[in-house]
Amino acid sequence: MAEKAGSGREPANEQAIATMYGAMRTEINQLYTKITELEMEVSEHSLVIGAIEPLDPSRRCYRMIGGVLVERTVKEVLPAVKRNKEGIEEVIKRLVEALEKKKKEVAEFESKHKIRIKRPDSEAREEGGRKEGAAQGVLVGPAGGNE
Q: Checking DSSP bridges between strand 68-73 and strand 60-65, what pairing results, if any?
Protein backbone atom coordinates (compact mmCIF):
# COMPACT_ATOMS: atom_id res chain seq x y z
CA MET A 1 0.00 0.00 0.00
CA ALA A 2 1.10 3.59 -0.48
CA GLU A 3 2.50 5.43 2.50
CA LYS A 4 0.15 7.64 4.48
CA ALA A 5 0.62 11.32 3.84
CA GLY A 6 -0.33 14.25 6.09
CA SER A 7 -3.67 14.65 4.30
CA GLY A 8 -6.65 13.24 6.18
CA ARG A 9 -8.30 11.95 3.01
CA GLU A 10 -5.63 9.53 1.83
CA PRO A 11 -6.03 6.96 4.61
CA ALA A 12 -9.77 6.83 3.89
CA ASN A 13 -8.99 6.35 0.20
CA GLU A 14 -6.45 3.65 1.03
CA GLN A 15 -9.00 2.07 3.32
CA ALA A 16 -11.60 2.08 0.53
CA ILE A 17 -9.11 0.50 -1.85
CA ALA A 18 -8.18 -2.12 0.75
CA THR A 19 -11.86 -2.85 1.39
CA MET A 20 -12.60 -3.22 -2.31
CA TYR A 21 -9.55 -5.43 -2.77
CA GLY A 22 -10.55 -7.58 0.20
CA ALA A 23 -14.06 -7.98 -1.21
CA MET A 24 -12.64 -9.03 -4.58
CA ARG A 25 -10.35 -11.58 -2.93
CA THR A 26 -13.30 -12.89 -0.92
CA GLU A 27 -15.31 -13.33 -4.13
CA ILE A 28 -12.45 -15.32 -5.66
CA ASN A 29 -12.27 -17.54 -2.57
CA GLN A 30 -16.03 -18.09 -2.68
CA LEU A 31 -15.82 -19.09 -6.34
CA TYR A 32 -13.02 -21.56 -5.55
CA THR A 33 -15.08 -23.01 -2.70
CA LYS A 34 -18.21 -23.40 -4.83
CA ILE A 35 -16.26 -24.99 -7.69
CA THR A 36 -14.68 -27.48 -5.29
CA GLU A 37 -18.07 -28.28 -3.76
CA LEU A 38 -19.63 -28.88 -7.18
CA GLU A 39 -16.67 -31.00 -8.31
CA MET A 40 -17.29 -33.21 -5.26
CA GLU A 41 -20.94 -33.55 -6.34
CA VAL A 42 -19.86 -34.52 -9.87
CA SER A 43 -17.57 -37.13 -8.33
CA GLU A 44 -20.46 -38.51 -6.26
CA HIS A 45 -22.71 -38.61 -9.32
CA SER A 46 -19.99 -40.48 -11.22
CA LEU A 47 -19.76 -43.04 -8.41
CA VAL A 48 -23.53 -43.55 -8.45
CA ILE A 49 -23.57 -43.88 -12.25
CA GLY A 50 -20.72 -46.38 -12.10
CA ALA A 51 -22.53 -48.39 -9.44
CA ILE A 52 -25.98 -48.60 -11.07
CA GLU A 53 -25.09 -48.64 -14.78
CA PRO A 54 -24.23 -52.35 -14.93
CA LEU A 55 -27.40 -53.30 -13.01
CA ASP A 56 -30.59 -54.69 -14.53
CA PRO A 57 -32.71 -51.71 -15.73
CA SER A 58 -35.84 -53.12 -14.06
CA ARG A 59 -34.13 -53.45 -10.67
CA ARG A 60 -35.50 -51.34 -7.81
CA CYS A 61 -33.57 -48.21 -7.05
CA TYR A 62 -34.06 -45.43 -4.50
CA ARG A 63 -33.52 -41.76 -5.16
CA MET A 64 -33.63 -38.80 -2.82
CA ILE A 65 -35.89 -36.08 -4.20
CA GLY A 66 -36.32 -32.97 -2.08
CA GLY A 67 -35.51 -34.82 1.14
CA VAL A 68 -37.89 -37.70 0.34
CA LEU A 69 -36.62 -41.15 -0.60
CA VAL A 70 -38.54 -42.33 -3.67
CA GLU A 71 -38.58 -45.85 -5.09
CA ARG A 72 -37.86 -46.03 -8.82
CA THR A 73 -36.14 -48.38 -11.24
CA VAL A 74 -32.55 -48.14 -12.45
CA LYS A 75 -33.99 -47.40 -15.91
CA GLU A 76 -35.71 -44.25 -14.52
CA VAL A 77 -32.95 -43.08 -12.20
CA LEU A 78 -29.87 -43.49 -14.41
CA PRO A 79 -30.82 -40.87 -17.06
CA ALA A 80 -31.83 -38.40 -14.33
CA VAL A 81 -28.50 -38.81 -12.52
CA LYS A 82 -26.61 -38.38 -15.81
CA ARG A 83 -28.59 -35.21 -16.61
CA ASN A 84 -27.88 -33.82 -13.14
CA LYS A 85 -24.17 -34.57 -13.56
CA GLU A 86 -24.09 -32.79 -16.94
CA GLY A 87 -25.92 -29.81 -15.46
CA ILE A 88 -23.46 -29.56 -12.58
CA GLU A 89 -20.53 -29.79 -15.02
CA GLU A 90 -22.04 -26.92 -17.03
CA VAL A 91 -22.35 -24.81 -13.87
CA ILE A 92 -18.72 -25.59 -13.00
CA LYS A 93 -17.68 -24.49 -16.48
CA ARG A 94 -19.48 -21.14 -16.04
CA LEU A 95 -18.02 -20.65 -12.55
CA VAL A 96 -14.50 -21.31 -13.87
CA GLU A 97 -15.07 -18.67 -16.56
CA ALA A 98 -16.31 -16.23 -13.89
CA LEU A 99 -13.27 -17.06 -11.75
CA GLU A 100 -10.86 -16.31 -14.60
CA LYS A 101 -12.64 -13.04 -15.29
CA LYS A 102 -12.47 -12.09 -11.60
CA LYS A 103 -8.76 -13.00 -11.43
CA LYS A 104 -8.04 -10.68 -14.37
CA GLU A 105 -10.08 -7.95 -12.70
CA VAL A 106 -8.10 -8.35 -9.46
CA ALA A 107 -4.78 -8.33 -11.35
CA GLU A 108 -5.78 -5.08 -13.10
CA PHE A 109 -6.89 -3.61 -9.77
CA GLU A 110 -3.56 -4.60 -8.18
CA SER A 111 -1.52 -3.00 -10.95
CA LYS A 112 -3.70 0.13 -11.07
CA HIS A 113 -3.39 0.74 -7.32
CA LYS A 114 0.14 -0.68 -7.01
CA ILE A 115 -0.93 -3.32 -4.51
CA ARG A 116 1.72 -5.74 -3.31
CA ILE A 117 0.84 -8.66 -1.07
CA LYS A 118 3.08 -9.44 1.86
CA ARG A 119 3.40 -13.18 2.27
CA PRO A 120 3.57 -14.10 5.97
CA ASP A 121 5.07 -17.54 5.25
CA SER A 122 7.99 -16.23 3.21
CA GLU A 123 8.62 -13.40 5.68
CA ALA A 124 8.64 -15.84 8.59
CA ARG A 125 11.12 -18.08 6.78
CA GLU A 126 13.37 -15.13 5.94
CA GLU A 127 13.20 -13.75 9.49
CA GLY A 128 13.70 -17.23 10.92
CA GLY A 129 16.80 -17.63 8.77
CA ARG A 130 18.15 -14.26 9.89
CA LYS A 131 17.44 -14.98 13.56
CA GLU A 132 18.97 -18.41 13.33
CA GLY A 133 22.09 -16.97 11.68
CA ALA A 134 22.30 -14.20 14.26
CA ALA A 135 21.87 -16.70 17.09
CA GLN A 136 24.64 -18.85 15.67
CA GLY A 137 26.91 -15.81 15.49
CA VAL A 138 26.21 -14.99 19.15
CA LEU A 139 26.74 -18.57 20.26
CA VAL A 140 29.87 -19.10 18.22
CA GLY A 141 31.40 -15.70 19.12
CA PRO A 142 31.68 -16.17 22.91
CA ALA A 143 32.82 -19.80 22.61
CA GLY A 144 35.74 -18.78 20.40
CA GLY A 145 36.46 -15.47 22.25
CA ASN A 146 36.88 -16.77 25.86
CA GLU A 147 36.11 -13.51 27.66
A: antiparallel
